[in-house]
Write a structure and sequence with these properties.
The chain contains 2 helices and 8 strands. The protein is α+β, with helices and mostly antiparallel strands. The protein has one domain: Immunoglobulin-like, CATH 2.60.40. Strand 6 and strand 7 form a beta hairpin. The protein is elongated, with a radius of gyration of 21 Å. The chain starts with a helix and ends with a helix. The relative contact order is 0.20.
């Protein structure tokens, strides 16, 4: 009986370590003029190979748009999505992180929604500045 309890405890403890491989403390996405900025912070990053940034236009089908290499436990990261927008167009994007471990297993962050709109004023100001160069 003693050995069985020890083995059960060991199995539960080992599973807890594997589950806690990468702890995502925060994940935020927000609009900055005509692009989206994603920021996240992590706790322990044991066995983590990469963060894959994914974007969706409908919140259902996601595509990878970039990858960030982890720098170590308890780090802060950011990623800028500079996807082009047509003039006077508003668009909503959905973002998530796919955290890929060394063995290829992946876990996902919660989905964040960002509404972007092209600033015609900023575009005009850039054209005016370019005329005086």
């Amino acid at each position: 009986m003693y050995k069985r309890i020890t083995l059960i405890f060991f199995a539960i403890a080992a599973a807890g370590i594997a589950i806690a491989g990468t702890e995502l403390i925060s994940f935020d996405a927000y609009a900055v003029i005509d692009h989206a900025r994603l920021e996240w912070a992590t706790g322990p990053e044991d066995n983590l190979r990469s963060f894959v940034v994914e974007r969706s236009q409908d919140g259902q089908v996601f595509m990878a748009i970039g990858q960030v290499v982890p720098t170590g436990s308890f780090s802060h990261y950011q990623f800028v999505d500079s996807s082009p927008l047509d003039a006077d167009m508003e668009r909503t994007f959905y973002y998530r992180l796919r955290m890929v471990d060394q063995d290829g297993t992946a876990r996902f962050s919660p989905v964040e929604e960002v509404s972007l709109s092209f600033s015609a004023v900023q575009h005009t100001w850039g054209s005016i500045k370019a005329m005086f160069r």
